[in-house]
Amino acid sequence: xxxxxxxxxxPDAVRDLQVGDEVLLRGRIVTGRAPAHRWLAAAERPxxxxxxxxxxxxxxxxxxxRQPGGGWRLLAAGPSASMRMEEWxxxxxxxxxxRAVLGKGGMGPRxxxxxxxxxxxxxxxxxxxxxxxxxxxxxxxxVHQLEELGAAEALWAVEVVDFPAIVTxxxxxxxxxxxxxxxxxxxxxxxxxxxxGSAPEPSASPPARGRAASR
Length: 215
Known about the structure:
By secondary structure, this protein is an alpha/beta fold.
């Protein structure tokens, strides 16, 4: 059973998480990909730290729309490949007090070292569920760098409820992505089980017997 995980997180809650743990996130998170990470790493951004400290950054380029009465809503919020942010991730974790990174596919040794040193985890979100994951976003609190970076690359501070993820890199130096030898997606699928509503793979037909098999 997935465990509820309320954000922001304290150090003890993070250290209690182990690789393979399934979680349901609840609380405020901030989105950001490579342009946002480059901006965050270049200088201290107090307005972002106030939103992100104790929480997480989500590697995501959301599809957004304006609400008729004002404000924004997310139409799609699938994860992006996290390795693109490896260059800046350790610095961003340290500078903004992050307790988690959320994305797809895992990250490299510098990030793993930073997770262990700072008491943080990496969370893998399932790909191909962008619309479903957007339904877990219940509110948009703020947006930063919208004009400079555009809607997809801006930093969106949003509230999520029951956002599903799995711990694949923990604060103890363990990484399922290393253990899987490059096939982390298969390992995560085995840990989490088939996606809801997915059809089972058809079983192979047994070989024909007798004279028919030799034709």
